[in-house]
Amino acid sequence: MRIDRNSWGSLAAAFIGSAAVAFLFIRFVRIPYVVYPVVAILLWFCVWQLAFFSVPKRRRRGSSKAVTSVADGRIVILEKTYEPEYLRKECIQLSVYMNFFDVHANFWPVDGKVTYYRYYPGKHMLAFKPKSSEENEHSCVGITTADGRQVFFKQIAGGFARRIVCYAGRQDTARAGEQCGIIKFGSRIDMFLPLDAEIKVNLGDYVRACETVLAEL
């Protein structure tokens, strides 16, 4: 396990802030049954932040045919829809919602060439709301596989997320299982797959980035 390279500043702020609060309670409050619980909560918070910004080692199961999840989380949308930005046709939408306790590093879902990237500033509504897909801050990535199949996904910021990191603007190739970015705090991934993709998961399933195969192209 390693820490996401774009998250050291956030991690340092969390640790310094926690240390400062702990010092103030220890120095000025001096009431054991108040100080001890506060310090314990702050230590738990620091451990949580380490886990939150980590990039775990995962077994790669994706390929140019097998589409794996971009993120850890629960499938909250699985339906047919029209995608107007990149695919511009009917497709299958599969959305994964990440809560505060999920690892928020994101990973390429399939092997291929990055053929589309765009970032949109926007609102910060709760990520599970339907309108968040269009109105929240988000980035969009299109990938074309070696045999011409197209996969499209969005990184969507949530109510507390204030930064989306996506590597699609810096590289033109995608390899399933390698990190493609991170979303800080509660957020969602929307994936759009061809109608003839063979879906391997169900609504409500909990999925893991890199390891859960969502569909076969």
Mind explaining what this structure looks like?
With about 220 residues, the protein is α+β, with helices and mostly antiparallel strands. It folds into two domains: about 55 residues; about 150 residues, Glucose Permease (Domain IIA) (Distorted Sandwich), CATH 2.70.70. The protein has three helices and 16 strands. The strands form four sheets. Strands 11-7-8-9-13-5-4-15 form an eight-stranded antiparallel β-sheet. A three-stranded antiparallel β-sheet has the order 3-16-14, with no helix packed on it. Strand 4 and strand 5 form a beta hairpin. Helix 1 packs antiparallel against helix 2. The longest helix has 22 residues. It is elongated and about 65 Å long.
Strand order of the largest sheet: 11-7-8-9-13-5-4-15
Radius of gyration: 19 Å
Structural class: alpha+beta
The major beta sheet can be summarized as: 8 strands, antiparallel
Order of helices and strands: EHHEEEEEEHEEEEEEEEE
Low-pLDDT residue spans? none
Helix count equals 3
Proportion in helices:
10-25%
Integer average pLDDT: 86
| CATH architecture annotation of the largest domain | Distorted Sandwich
Number of domains: 2
Quick one: overall form? elongated
In the CATH scheme, the class of the largest domain would be Mainly Beta
Strand count = 16
Measured by DSSP, the beta-strand proportion falls in: 35-45%
Report the CATH topology name of the largest domain: Glucose Permease (Domain IIA)
